[in-house]
Every structure is written in structure tokens, then in C-alpha cells.
Structures
1.
Amino acid sequence: MSKLGIDIGSTTVKLVVLDDENKVQYSRYERHMSNVFEKVEELIKDMYQELGDISLRPVITGSGGLSLAKLIDVRFEQEVISCSRAVEALIPETDVAIELGGEDAKITFYGATVEQRMNGTCAGGTGAFIDQMAILLNTDAAGLNEAAKDYKVIYPIAARCGVFAKTDIQPLINDGADKADLAASIFQAVVNQTISGLACGHPIKGKVAFLGGPLSFLSELRKRFIETLELPDEDVIFPEDSKFFVAIGAAMLAEKQAEVTLAEIVKRMDEADKEQLSESKHIEPLFRDLHEYRDFKARHDKAKIKRRDLSKATGRVYLGIDAGSTTTKATLIDEEKNLLYSFYRSNEGNPIEAVRSMLYELYDQLPNTAYIANVCATGYGENLIKAAFKADMGEIETMAHYKAAEEFLPGVDFILDIGGQDMKCLKIKDGAIYNIMLNEACSSGCGSFLETYAKSVNMDTKAFAKEALLAENPVDLGTRCTVFMNSKVKQAQKEGATIGDISAGLSYSVIKNALYKVIKLRNTDETGNKIVVQGGTFMNNAVLRSIEQIIGKEVVRPDIAGLMGAYGCALIARNHYVKGTRSSILSREDLGRFSVEHVNGRCKRCENQCILTINKFSNGTRYITGNRCEKGAGGNLH
């Protein structure tokens, strides 16, 4: 009697028919693009056409299979049980099985008991992560695999979060790193994430089996695992049908199920009400009507900074520079704290060039009647900017953001700053910051989260946000990893959700992720009474409205929300001005002579063997990045 195993994963459907001796008679492997019902129906009908109306015993398994199994009245089995059944029957010598899927990763340890570790809230190190990285290099997973065959150097790349990984890769692309090296580095990042994130110190030794789609199709990914784990050839198990193992196990578990004909399964699919598979939930709209939106906008338009024409400036002016992870911001203020000039630009992997462009632009507009008296820098690139352009002082960015927020709302006690890839929450009491929370390994509550989806529907972020404002049925997308949420968005679109419904749902998700995953709020009282929200993400009115809806309180969003770090620095520069001095920042003439040379190499002064980038400036100074200990700060390469 034939047995049918259907494995419905997060991104693919695998279908296997076994004969009485558990030999594969028929198999199919295809992506379902979130159209699970339609894809399974198509594959069943194709099988019916090819095999005829045979009798078989079916079992469905996989992360996306339970709902369908109930709908067509077929037995469902957990995938860990299905996979273990196939491993025990076909490769019983296995000690450890590493299985990668579209949105999941699993390590199963076999012994006296079976112990399985799998990813939970993060898709780092899965097939979807590889797909995202491939798009960044204008190829696909197969293209990455081909390129990786010729690698020479492996760069450290974050695998914990796809968005953070992009930040690591983009500067390497800008610096002309070889595609082969980048491809191998991406695969190594997946290996590092799987071993460190799942094994968590449990030794992976003995006979190791590699299962699942990515490990079946990507030979170079397998190679990176084998080299990292230092596995001898005799301990590597790569079965012929590794991508079908869960489906094969499900078919093996179908031995005691009732027989059913293929025609009957086709009939059940035809008669099933697939609307019952609808998973999308909806939440309240951001605004009930246009009138409510106009009132909201009028209230927030009041939080405006005082401005003055730069051409009329006289005397001392103060410059604040915020060199962030993805953008460079700058503000110039006068003695009365009027904003004279502002600058906001993407780094494009080169913060030095962004600051140089800003200074040229500023010098072109600065009248002879004014001079830069003091300069303060902050952000990821603070020390780099101080070394390159001789900025007078630096300040940690939390203090810069607090000073700016205090200027807009005296007595502020809660500040939430959401940028492109980072998020900060500051709690203040009696004029002092007493608690700071940052996102570390996840960017799902950050601005790039929205930007990614806007690009996927060929819209800029502003237009995407505008769609959300009057959306009638926002989709509840929960608090999940950016990669995982792709599936939910596709499901919602299939069920008729508009772009506005999805945009509004994502705006809610950004705030829920920030408040409940990063800040871990227990109740909204913890947000204080005087709340300032800032960072470029809050220039999106849908996100701004979302936080007010979720915490049930009104907040202040300054009109320079994306420049608050730079504005805080300008205020600090003004407050720390020493009478009778001028800034040491490079002059217009010095900028003309300014140059920087980048030298890369590996430091071998300790076991870290960091890849150093030494920036040598024309004024004789230099700045070193990439070192994880003080030994690399000298810049001696070996």
C-alpha cells in the first residue's frame, strides 16, 4: 500500500509517495509563495494525473500544515516526530541532524533521548535570511552558492538579524569587496548563527546529517558547516533525499492510517472552504475620520524649533554632528538656540564623505559675520569624525538626545528614539537618566522595517505611510521578526488587505516591537507622564499615531525628530563654549587639502585576529576600526 507524506513548510511544499518497502515512488518540491492551499491542490492534481486514482494512506506535517490537515480531514503529525522517524529508519547512525528551512532552523541531538533546539522569534540563519542577502547582491541563493566557490577572505557579518547584516555588507560592497568573499561570508554567518544560537555550547560531534532545502541545494553552505565543525569525511551524512526527509518521515508514519483514494483527496480539496484557512486578524483604524486626523496633525505641528535665516547670523554659532549607523545629521544654532542650518543624508557606507559634503555646504552658506565657535560630535562615528575633521568634543548619544528632548519638553521623563536600525529608550528622574534600553540583536521595531516593505510595493516611505492614515481595516501583524512577517503580509494580501491596511498594521507592529520586545513594558504607566518621541521613524505620522493609540497617552514629536542627536550636540557645544576660543574644525581651505587612505589587514596580536581598517588622514592623524581589544589600536598588522 502506498503512503503519502505532505510537508508544508513556511516557504515550500514537499510531497512524497512511498511504496511498501519505503522506497520513493514520486516526489515534488515547490515554493508556495504563501498560497498554501492553491499550491497543495495543484501538486495533488498533478500527482493524480501522473499516478492515476491510486489508494494510499496520507499524513500531513510541517509548520504550515495543521490548518489544512483539519480542513481536508487528514492526519497531522508534528515535524520533529516525522523527521526523527525518517532519520531513525534511513540514517540510524546519525548523532546530530542540522536542518535548515525557509524560516526555521533546527538542530536535533540523538542519543538516549532526542533533544531538539530550534529558532523562535528570529529568522537569522535560515533560508529566508539567505534569500534576503542574495537580493542585496543582485542574485539568488544559487548564485550565491556559485560565487562562494571562489572565495579568498571571510568577513564577519551579523547573522542574528537580516537588517543588521545589510549594514555589515553595504560598506563592504561600497569598498569593492569581491562577490565571492561576500557570498562565503554570508554562508559563514548562517553557520555561526546556527551553531552559537541553537547549539548554545552543546557539542556537535559524531555523525552529523545535513537536511532541509538550503543544505540540499547549497553545497558551499554545507562546506562552511563541515569546515567550521572540523568534521572528517566519514562523519558527514548527506542523504540523497535530504530535502524530503520530513515528508518521508510523515509518509512512514502513515502506515496505520485509513486508506483513501487520490480522487477522494482531490474531491475534498475541491469542496473545502479555503476561507477557513484565513489567519489574518484586524485591529482598530488609526483615525476614525479625516477630522480626527486634522486635529492630531494640528496638535503635533506645535512642537516646532525656533528658526533663523543663516545668511543673517552674526557672532558665535555652534555645530552638532550625529554620525549614525546609516545616516549623518548636523545642525547649526546661534547663541539664542535658533536653528540656522540642518543636514540629513544617508552615509552610503562612507560617513567621512557625508561630513565633508556637509562642511562644504555649510561653509558655502555661512556669512562672514559669523564663525563656528565650538563643534560637538556623537553617534557611531563620533571618534572617527573627531579624528578626521578635528571636532572639538564628543558626547555619548544618549546624553545628546536627552538635552534635545529637554529643550522641547522641560521635565521630560520618557524618551523613545527609533532610527533606521537602532532604538533607544531613556527614562529620566530628577534631571538624570536612570535607565537606558537599546535594541541589540533585533531591528524589527526600527524604521528599516517599514522601508523594506515600502520598497517591496514600489513606494517611497512617505507615500507608504500616507496610505496607512485612513486605512479602514489595519492587519494585526503582531510582534515578529521582519523576515517572519513576510509570510503574514503575503497571507493578508491574498485575503484582500489593501496596502493601507498593511502599512497601518506595520506601523502598529513597529511600536509593539519597540515597547514589548525591546523595552519589555509591563504596563503603560512605565512610560511616564512627559513623553518625547524622536528619530526619523517618528516623522511617519502613522507610527506616531500608533504609539499614542497603544499607550493611551499624548506624546510630543519635535519637528526635527530626525535631527535630535545633532541638535543636542549643538546645545552641548554652546553650553561648553570657552570664552575667547574658536573651533578647531577643519577650515574651508583645510577641506580642500583633506584626504583619507584606507588600509585593511588582519591583526594577529591575539586569538581574535580582527580585520582592521586603518584610516590615515592627510593631517597625519589616523583612526583604527575593527579591533575588539586594545592590542589592535596600534594598527600593527602581521
Note: The two ends are 66 Å apart (CA to CA).
2.
Amino acid sequence: MTEEPFVDLVAAYAKSYVSDAGVKERYCKASVSDFSEDVAGQIERAAVAVLERRENVFVTGPQGRGKSYLAAALVREIGTLIASSAKRIERVQVTGDVGNHFLLHGRDKDEWTPSTEWVLVPKALDELRESFSGSDATPQWRGLTGVSIVVLDDLGGHKVTDWTAETLYTLIAERYDHVLPTIVTTNMSKKELAQAIDARLVSRLAEGPQIVLSGEDRRVHHG
């Protein structure tokens, strides 16, 4: 049986990484190559910042400029970097599971192999609020506080209340304290987020790369 080329296995691992993160179908094929040279370089540097220095990434710009698509491309790039650092990649079959699974051989024992989870913030906040059984219920985002990398998509796209502000601050502060990277997409600038939600939240997100998207509305232009 012919062994798969290493580059194909890296691509397959990255594709699986995006799927496992829960990236939405509309964005699951996003890659660095879809962007201009300048923006692609920013995505590549952001992926290194996340993996090597565990920094946050702040993606901002007007509505429709491709922020979520860029975040998905960043997730793929993170998966690509993880796989590329292996000396050998092995596909494995798991009984009863039709998904793709891989073993990465030859990575340094100190190299980080993080998992990533994609969260649409407005939807997640609505589901969290609806899960409460009473007024004394405590927000439970404990699962997200321990995930290696979290993408908070459309931060600020929700109704801002004292509860949402405190819920988001608690999540981001706990992740910050444990040096777990958070990737944020938002229509707001850091100043606008600080005024609308919480300056403490923004100060924790500010330590890391910022990617600003401008130009035409991709949704209108691409139909």
C-alpha cells in the first residue's frame, strides 16, 4: 500500500482540526490562500503567536468584511502548524467512528497540541440564559474555561446587559489567568467594546495580534 505524501496528511489533519473545532460549514474551507498577501501574513503570524506564546487574537472590522471566515482560516493554519511539526503522521481507524483520526509522531514532548472550540457568542449567551432554572443560577461556562483555544465569534453582536458583560468577563478573565488563547471576532473596535461591555475584558484581549479588515462587504460582493 502506497504511503500518503506528508503534505497530504498535513492538509487532512488541518481539515479534521477545523471540523473538530466546530467551525460552521460556511467557513470550513477557509484558508490563508483566500486572502491578500498582507492579510495572509497576519494570519500566519497570529497562528504562531497562539501556538508559541499563547497570545489572544483580536479580529475586527465592519460587518461583512470576512472576520469569521478569517478566524476559520486561522484555525486551519493552527492545525497545519501542529501537523507540520511532526516527523510522521499516521491515520488511525477508531471502531464505530467514521471520522478522521491521526497520530503525530516525532513532535517534541514540550510542544503544545491544543484543541480548539468555536463559539457563536450571541447564540451561546441565549442558550446559557435559557438553561437557568431560577434567578439564583450561576453561569456555567466551565467547559470553555478549560479548552485550549476558544474562538468567540461575533463578540458584541448580542444585547449588552450587566449579566452578559459579567458572564463574558468571567470567561475571558479565567482563560487569561490560565494563559489559554482566545480568538475574538467583532464589529467593534477595542475602544467601542470597552465602552459597551467592559474595559477589563478588553484589556485582557489586547495582549496579542490585532487584525483589522476593511474594504468591500464580502457578502454583498460575492452574493
Note: Confidence is low (pLDDT under 50) at residues 134-140, 219-223.
3.
Amino acid sequence: MLAELAGRRPRGIVFDIGSLKTPLRSGLEQLRAAGCHVTSVHPMFGPDTELLSGRHVIFIDLGHAEALAAARTLFASTMAEQVVMGPDEHDRLIAYVESKRYKGVARITEAFRVEYYKLVKRILEEEEQVIDCYAGWASAQIYADGTVWPCCVRADNLGNLRDHDYDFKAIWFGDKIKEVRRSIAAKECYCPLANASYTNMLIDPPTLTRVGLKVISPD
């Protein structure tokens, strides 16, 4: 197919998104020899990935600087990490990566990370709490000066540990936190804060079910 495409000499940027480049090398070289603007790309994530933060895109330098630069601009507005390398280096790297599988705690962590990315996308799109938030019940944050917050986004001043002889319970079961808990339970706020979101996911049965199925399912 690439050889046939080389015969047609398309004017635009031509690139593949295959996971291995060696089988495509002959066709890619024919495109380059025909004067085509050709490069190669390998997104290190699947088609169901919704957020690119923390993800990597590998760009293969086939000797056409303009094509390489044009392909990189496609991901310039995302938070994906861009890596440039040659085809041989790429295939050695992928062979190593594919020989590895998430196991144990790393597999659980990866499953939760995927769920978190999906949760963030929904929160930003729907602009409301997608799953119940337990900030102020199951999690809190303590600022450097001793101030206790339900979370750093709301930053409600629930009291300062220094004013309560460092007795956290005096703040956690005090009067100020009651109104904050009511407000959070009434979904008067929403945010994708990771600290609270991971705690919320650990308490959300549907999320735990999806994570569990992901962990036990075969690769």
C-alpha cells in the first residue's frame, strides 16, 4: 500500500501510526525517495484514551524535517509528551516495552489511573460531581500553617491545629465542618482534584467493580 502511495506522490504529510516500524520501512523509504513529505508516528496509548496527560507520542525521524515538524504540531496543544527517535531505536524500545506487563500493585495503580482520567473528562464536560465526593469525610488537607481544609480547591477554613492544641478531632467533629459537608453532599461544588478523586473512587462501588475487572482480566 505504501509503495502504491509512493507512486501517486501525494502532496500532503504522510505518516503511519503502526506499533512496529521495521515491516513498514521499505514502503516508507519508497515514499521518501519519491519526494513525499513522510514521517512516522506511534501514539503510546489506545483508541479509548480520553486524556493525554502523562501519555507519550513517539515520532520517528525518517530524514524529512518538515514532515516531522508538521506531525508534531498535531499534538502541540495536548499535554502528551513528545519523543523523537530513529526507527531502529523505536523498534528496540517497543520490543522491550511489550515484553513487560503490569503486575501486582502496578496493575492496580494503572487501572485506577485510567478510571481517574475518564472521571476527569466527565467532570469537566458535565460540570458537576460525577461520583459522590467525600472530601470533609474521608479526606482533608492540612496547610503549612496548620489550617485544615476539606480540600485545597474549596479551601474552607475549618480551623487551625495550632489553635486547638493540635487536636485534629476538635476540628473534624466541630461546628464549622457541618455546613461544608452539607454543601459538598448537596453537590454545590465539583472539581477533578486528584487527591479527593482517588479517595472518592476507593469508596465508589461501580468504580471499584470496573477496576477489579480490569485487574483480573487477561491482557
Note: The first strand starts at residue 13 and ends at 16.
